[in-house]
């Protein structure tokens, strides 16, 4: 990899309730339990997950479980059903209908990467505090995986390889809590940091971006960075970006309320979590409900279609002229050219994140 220098954290699952089994092999080779988390030195430092430290065994168990259809009621749906690695762990659907019921969900499946830095809630409205608690929602949702925990755990407990993997990862038998911890570890290990932009940013290849793409980078920094900030290209916060002017909602999940569904604070009406711009060119359609089919639709929304309300982000309003942000056609072409350079093909094809069941 191009990464010139790493900050790193080594997590060893060898303490407290998360201790690994200390058989002879473990005691002789404790480094085999360690996992070195790597990212470029210009990335922010993530928060140490003290209650669920990363380990090789925990991550590998999580990878198996992520692709495991036994975690669904009908034994045909896995987490990967809605999160495809070649699409940056999104699914390309407006709203997925591939869950256990076949009914379309009310929200678009988000991409999954660089979640080690996502400590401000999960889901489009921040309804889950962390990845451990987030896992239980799709597992139990009647239109997603629809499983009963005792059934799910019993299935895994009947498979010797899973029993052994849980023992190595958590020194315990299969459990619903262990499943959530392992899934969280795997997802936190998924890092996207080797796009052409990163080769430019790191200094590895100063010519990785051409003149038009550099103009696009400056335009993104000027017009988009109030939400899509920093090297993650997201502030992991919640904003009303003018998709709607009214927020009446009689849907079962109050999807149009946005962050307000969680906080019940009116300033959060219509506010949704900022997705990263990294890999954005492979994660269409866009927005929490998948309403925009293409990146052109997204940019046209910001140019011509922002709806003003008492809840529209004031930073966005300050950038507007008329119904949108003043961008020329040439500006749009430059922005799109740059966004293509945020596609990390190494990440999209990384076998460390692939389905391990296919290799059996």
UniProtKB/TrEMBL annotation:
<dbReference type="GO" id="GO:0004601">
    <property type="term" value="F:peroxidase activity"/>
</dbReference>
<dbReference type="InterPro" id="IPR004852">
    <property type="entry name" value="Di-haem_cyt_c_peroxidsae"/>
</dbReference>
<keyword id="KW-0575">Peroxidase</keyword>
<feature type="domain" description="Cytochrome c">
    <location>
        <begin position="211"/>
        <end position="343"/>
    </location>
</feature>
<keyword id="KW-0408">Iron</keyword>
<keyword id="KW-0349">Heme</keyword>
<dbReference type="InterPro" id="IPR026259">
    <property type="entry name" value="MauG/Cytc_peroxidase"/>
</dbReference>
<keyword id="KW-0574">Periplasm</keyword>
<dbReference type="InterPro" id="IPR009056">
    <property type="entry name" value="Cyt_c-like_dom"/>
</dbReference>
<keyword id="KW-0479">Metal-binding</keyword>
<dbReference type="InterPro" id="IPR036909">
    <property type="entry name" value="Cyt_c-like_dom_sf"/>
</dbReference>
<keyword id="KW-0732">Signal</keyword>
<dbReference type="Pfam" id="PF03150">
    <property type="entry name" value="CCP_MauG"/>
</dbReference>
<dbReference type="InterPro" id="IPR051395">
    <property type="entry name" value="Cytochrome_c_Peroxidase/MauG"/>
</dbReference>
<keyword id="KW-0560">Oxidoreductase</keyword>
<protein>
    <submittedName>
        <fullName>Cytochrome-c peroxidase</fullName>
    </submittedName>
</protein>
């Amino acid at each position: 990899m191009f990464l010139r220098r790493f900050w790193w954290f080594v997590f060893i699952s060898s303490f407290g309730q998360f201790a690994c089994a200390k058989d002879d092999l473990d005691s002789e080779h404790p480094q085999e339990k360690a996992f070195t988390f790597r990212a470029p030195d210009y990335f922010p430092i993530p928060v140490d997950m003290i209650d669920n430290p990363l380990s090789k065994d925990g991550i590998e168990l999580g990878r198996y479980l992520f692709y495991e259809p036994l975690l669904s009621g009908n034994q045909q749906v896995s987490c990967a059903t809605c999160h495809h690695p070649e699409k940056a762990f999104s699914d390309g659907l407006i709203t997925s209908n591939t869950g256990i019921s076949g009914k379309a969900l009310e929200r678009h499946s988000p991409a999954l990467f660089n979640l080690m830095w996502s400590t401000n809630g999960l889901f489009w409205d921040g309804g889950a505090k962390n990845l451990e608690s987030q896992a239980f929602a799709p597992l139990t949702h009647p239109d997603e995986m629809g499983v009963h925990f005792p059934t799910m755990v019993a299935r895994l407990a009947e498979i010797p390889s899973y029993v052994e993997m849980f023992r190595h990862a958590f020194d315990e038998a299969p459990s619903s809590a262990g499943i959530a911890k392992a899934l969280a570890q795997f997802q936190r290990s998924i890092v996207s940091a080797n796009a052409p932009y990163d080769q430019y940013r790191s200094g590895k290849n100063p010519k990785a971006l051409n003149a038009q793409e550099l103009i696009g980078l400056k335009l993104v920094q000027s017009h988009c960075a109030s939400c899509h900030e920093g090297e993650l290209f997201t502030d992991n916060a919640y904003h009303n970006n003018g998709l709607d002017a009214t927020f009446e909602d009689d849907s079962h999940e109050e999807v149009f309320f946005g962050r307000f569904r969680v906080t019940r604070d009116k300033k959060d009406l219509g506010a949704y979590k900022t997705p990263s711009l990294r890999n954005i060119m492979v994660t269409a359609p866009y927005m929490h409900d998948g309403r925009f089919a293409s990146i052109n639709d997204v940019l046209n929304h910001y140019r011509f279609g922002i709806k003003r309300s008492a809840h529209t982000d004031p930073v966005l309003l300050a950038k507007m002229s008329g119904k949108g942000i003043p961008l020329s056609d040439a500006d749009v072409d430059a922005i799109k050219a740059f966004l293509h350079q945020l596609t990390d093909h190494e990440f999209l094809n990384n076998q460390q994140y692939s389905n391990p069941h296919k290799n059996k």
